[in-house]
Design a protein that fits this description.
single chain; alpha+beta; 11 strands; binds zinc ion
């Protein structure tokens, strides 16, 4: 059982401002072992900022947490998130969440890799109308520039197609790891921005793939 304050009074939320459950990450960290239960914890600078309880039933994820919207009362929430497995082209299986959101009386049911806590429940970004901040072009450019700068500061090429340079002499292993993570994050954000910007040029199946990825 955990809790967090949430619910910024804004109608178009930014994905970065919301806590998210990354299904792929949860699987990688062993959350989907038979009968697994535990806490999923968000932290910043190694300090815990929020947590929720989860239980893996084999076909679904039962979430268990407290939430407080816009300074209101704490509420206890139990949420059931169905999961599906699909075969990957290159072998192995990938797990997705089926968004349990209901909008205008219709069940969302989208297969997604990420759920956001934009309000009381964890739902897909379509249900919350979450705008990735990188949708605004300045941020998209800024992210790319930041990644390029970091890459060059490490002594490498600026482009994302190149491997990140090895750790410079005298730099702490931890510092280097953090910089690599930051580069990955910036480039990931820029990718999302790119897709959003050129959305109208992609086919439906391309977009479906992107939605699964992000
Ligand atoms: Zn949804």
């Amino acid at each position: 059982m955990g809790g967090y304050g949430s619910g910024r009074p804004s109608n178009k939320q930014k994905a970065e401002d919301c806590r998210s459950l990354d299904i792929y990450k949860m699987k990688r960290e062993g959350c989907f072992e038979p009968g697994m239960r535990g806490n999923w914890i968000w932290s910043r600078n190694e300090n815990e900022i929020a947590r929720i309880g989860y239980h893996y039933t084999g076909t679904a994820l039962e979430l268990d947490y407290r939430v407080r919207l816009s300074g209101g009362k704490w509420e206890l929430i139990k949420q059931n998130v169905p999961l599906v497995q699909t075969d990957c082209n290159y072998g192995g299986q990938r797990t997705y969440a089926i968004c349990p959101g209901v909008l205008n009386g219709r069940h969302c049911g989208r297969r997604v890799g990420k759920l956001f806590s934009g309000g009381r429940f964890f739902l897909c970004r379509h249900c919350y109308g979450i705008a990735y901040a990188s949708q605004s072009e300045p941020r998209y450019d800024r992210m790319l520039r930041r990644a390029q700068k970091l890459r060059m500061a490490l002594g490498g090429e600026p482009g994302a197609a190149y491997p990140i340079a090895p750790r410079p002499k005298g730099m702490w292993e931890r510092t280097y790891r953090r910089k690599r993570l930051e580069i990955d994050w910036c480039e990931h954000q820029a990718n999302i921005g790119f897709i959003e910007k050129y959305r109208h040029q992609f086919s439906g199946s391309d977009l479906k793939l992107f939605d699964d990825l992000f």
